Amino acid sequence: MAVAGSQSPDLTGETKSARTTASRETGALGRSGSPGRNWDSFERDEKPERERDIELQQILADMAVLVDAQGEILDSLENQVQNAVNHVVTGTEALREAKSYRKKSRKCMMIAIIILLVIAIIVVLSILKPWAKSK
């Protein structure tokens, strides 16, 4: 339907002036109960559409809030995962260092045991003196 002027169509594709023209055409006939569509029934039919549009807008707004909140949660999880990775790397380095210290401590312990054995042998030999001639 072509309408002169700069009227923008609504969701149903009709302009305000087109609805006004339609209501004028059906005016008295529609209200009197003729088969024509009157303005009151048009508003009743349009009301559920408006309510659905409002509900749809509310749902979309709620979805936007949820997406934003989930984005924050994902950012928080990403930070926590990065912190966990850093802790794992630090722990791995600490384990390598502990392994190195364990090898060094074993080596020192073996040297200490050998020195104690040598000292024990010297003490035992000095007490028994097997090389001295007995008379």
UniProtKB/TrEMBL annotation:
Composition-biased stretches (Polar residues): 1-24
Q: Boundaries of each T-SNARE coiled-coil homology domain copy?
A: 55-98
Q: Which domain of life is it from?
A: Eukaryota
Compartments where located? Cell membrane
Q: Where is this region: Disordered?
A: 1-50
Q: Where is the composition biased (Basic and acidic residues)?
A: 40-50
Pfam families (alphabetical): SNARE
Q: Which GO terms describe its molecular function?
A: SNAP receptor activity; SNARE binding
Q: Which PROSITE patterns match?
A: T_SNARE
Q: Where are the transmembrane segments?
A: 108-128
Q: How does it sit in the membrane?
A: Single-pass type IV membrane protein
SUPFAM superfamilies xref list = SNARE fusion complex (SSF58038)
Matching InterPro entries, A to Z?
Syntaxin, T_SNARE_dom
UniProt keyword annotations, A-Z: Membrane, Protein transport, Transmembrane, Transmembrane helix, Transport
Any one GO CC term of this protein is: endomembrane system
- Its Gene Ontology biological processes? exocytosis; intracellular protein transport; vesicle docking; vesicle fusion
| Sequence similarity | Belongs to the syntaxin family.
Know the name of this protein?
Answer: t-SNARE coiled-coil homology domain-containing protein
Q: Which organism is it from?
A: Miscanthus lutarioriparius
